[in-house]
Write a structure and sequence with these properties.
alpha/beta, Gyrase A, domain 2, Isoleucyl-tRNA Synthetase, Domain 1, five-stranded parallel beta sheet, four-stranded antiparallel beta sheet, 13% strand, RNA-binding
Length: 554
RNA sequence: GCGCCCAUAGCUCAGCUGGAUAGAGCGACGGUUUGCGGAACCGUAGGUCAGAGGUUCGAGUCCUCUUGGGCGCACCA
């Protein structure tokens, strides 16, 4: 929609230049926006202000030069005028908006899709929590943001795949196996002094019980060495299955679950090290193998292979990221908890050492979630294993509210998640505010069909009876969705979607309160039904990006 | 000590590549319905955009410093 105005300005600028009135060399950035104030038209541009300096003229006189070459009125434009320090304001005709409104109905659930991504292949990795314990609320934020981001990017025309990286090797898995083994013996009555550095959470007892149910006392009396492989794998699989289930309940699915272990099966890890060594980025010191990451903006060098001969987590991560790029993605995006930010330069360094372009890899950091119950902070201590799990939160507040709350804030600020507010079916709860609007519209449709009226199609509806300013304001708002999708996708900022929806819905409720939809005036009723159907579509499409349902009734 | 993130109304937060008078929600106060869902609507109060410099025609937005908070600085994953 703005593009249309922008193109007009571009044309006018070109003409003004060939007419000798302006002398800019390269086309300036043209900002077109919806003015905040009333009486400032439907669109506004600041080009004249931007150009003023290089043209060595006052902004207003630049604006006047541009204005000469703009159509002062047409089928789409009602008027163009200069305002304030040099803004050029456009007022559009009703037909301009009404035609585009019909477009919303024609596009239906496709409305809001754009092709800004041009089918670029993106791999989005998120959650990727170690299978050493159930997902907690922080992972929930990552899951909601990651999944919605994938939906958003798809809507914006990217070819997106999602992936969960399963860290199924290494020390933590050994610790998990050992924890299960100790709990197993404990369940048979042995007195265990449970070490602090192992997993103390209740869930490990559950896993131990599962093993007993399956294998009985088969392992009793054996050495840790003997039983560890079984316990490690069993516990890991059991917990991973739990994670899968939790995510499924949350509506989050992955295209692929990528196991760290598979990198070792194909020796991709060893090959990556060899390859880096050939390039001269690897050296040996103190019996370990190091990467010269300090050559690539990392603060110091990093160990790839420990003295013990074991490879570090970083080492397999190198192979993993190389593998991702080799699979043909032009962009790989990782969503990490903010506590991993120190790890970013390291991965960037190694990818650069490997010769990949800097902007292939992008990390999005998601800040912490503080759980609250009203004013009270709910303490979360991972050490004791006493944290609130994602599934507990979902159980308490529901999928829709949980997802909405995770998505409503910019992910680079801390999030206060208020359990009381999220589960309240009250006006304070923003999820219900939006869903309520959708249900309300559906309810009007039900009433309409009771009196023999159906929402008309875009080809048959007569919208000329829509004249109130509120309707046009509502239409303008709806038509912004494609821009919201494009901009938030390019910025990787999902939170703009719920903010847009909240604004839109607020205008709808206000319209509803002022203008009765169903009345004796049949043509007007039909036109308003059509208008609301488009609002409904817009709400539903927006909610679908968030993975939140759009209910017909509540 | 070094590095990253954050600081906007009483609270929780928006503010898109710098643009017109800084916006919502909640909370507070007051109002609206014998009609389409009152889970709603309308109004009032509430701000030195942490502080100080700087760049600019123009700064909440960009730069520097200070203060305050979060996080990270492993041969853990």
């Amino acid at each position: 929609m703005k593009l249309y105005v922008k193109q007009m300005i571009v044309k006018a600028l070109e003409q003004a230049r060939s007419g000798g009135e302006l002398k800019f060399e390269s086309e300036p950035d043209i900002v077109v926006e919806k003015p905040k104030g009333t009486g400032q038209g439907d669109f506004s541009t600041t080009v004249a202000l931007t150009l003023a300096k290089s043209e060595k003229k006052s902004p207003r006189s630049v604006a006047e030069s541009i204005l000469k070459y703009l159509p002062s009125s047409s089928a789409d434009i009602e008027s163009v005028e200069i305002a304030g320090p040099g803004f050029i304001n456009f007022k559009m005709t009703p037909e301009f908006f009404l035609e585009r409104l019909k477009g919303v109905a024609r596009q239906g659930c496709e409305f809001g899709s754009v092709n800004a991504g041009k089918n670029e292949k993106i791999l989005l990795e998120f959650v990727s929590a170690n299978p050493t314990g159930p997902l907690h609320i922080g992972h929930g934020r990552g899951a909601a943001v990651g999944h919605s981001l994938s939906l958003l990017l798809k809507r914006a025309g990217f070819d997106v795949e999602t992936e969960y990286y399963v860290n199924d090797v290494g020390n933590q898995m050994n610790n998990l196996g050992r924890s299960a083994w100790l709990r197993y013996r404990e369940l048979f009555g042995e007195k265990i002094n449970f070490p602090d550095d192992l997993y103390r959470g209740e869930y490990v007892k559950g896993t131990a019980q599962e093993i007993i149910d399956l294998k009985g006392k088969e392992f009793l009396g054996k050495s840790e060495e003997e039983v560890l492989p079984f316990f490690r794998e069993f516990a890991g699989d059991s917990i991973l299955n739990g994670i899968r289930e939790d995510l499924a309940v949350f509506g989050v699915k992955f295209d692929r679950w990528f196991k760290e272990g598979s990198l070792y099966e194909d020796d991709l890890v060893g090959k990556s090290v060899d390859w880096l060594r050939e390039k001269g980025h690897v050296y040996e010191k103190d019996g370990a193998v190091w990467l010269k990451s300090s050559d690539f903006n990392d603060e110091k060098d990093r160990v790839l292979v420990k003295q013990s001969g074991e490879k570090t987590y970083f080492c397999s991560d190198i192979a993993y990221h190389k593998n991702k790029i080799d699979r043909g993605f032009s962009k790989i995006i990782d969503l990490w908890g903010a506590d991993h930010h120190g790890y970013v330069p390291r991965v960037q360094a190694v990818l650069e050492a490997m010769g990949y372009s800097k902007d292939v890899f992008r990390v999005l950091l998601v800040q912490f979630v503080a759980l609250k119950r009203g004013k009270e902070k709910v303490s979360m201590s991972t050490r004791s294993g006493e944290f609130i799990t994602l599934s507990e939160v979902i159980e308490e507040v529901g999928v829709d509210a949980a997802r909405y709350f995770f998505l409503m804030r910019s992910s680079d600020t801390h999030l206060d998640f208020d359990l009381e507010l999220a589960k309240e079916e009250a006006p304070e709860n923003p999820v219900f505010y939006i869903q309520y609007a959708h249900a309300r519209i559906c309810s009007i449709f039900r009433n309409a069909s009771d009196s023999g009226m159906v929402v008309p199609g875009p080809e048959e509806v007569d919208l000329s009876v829509l004249s109130e300013a509120d309707a046009f304001s509502l239409i303008h708002k709806m038509l912004i969705l494609p821009e919201v999708v494009e901009k938030s996708a390019l910025a990787f900022e999902v939170h703009r979607v719920p903010h847009f929806l909240h604004d839109l819905v607020s205008e709808f409720h206000s319209y509803y309160a002022k203008h009765r939809v169903l009345s004796e005036d049949r043509p007007l009723s039909l036109a308003r039904l059509f208008l609301l159907d488009c609002v409904r579509t817009t709400i539903a499409n927006g909610l679908s990006i968030m993975g939140v349902s759009a209910p017909d009734k509540m």
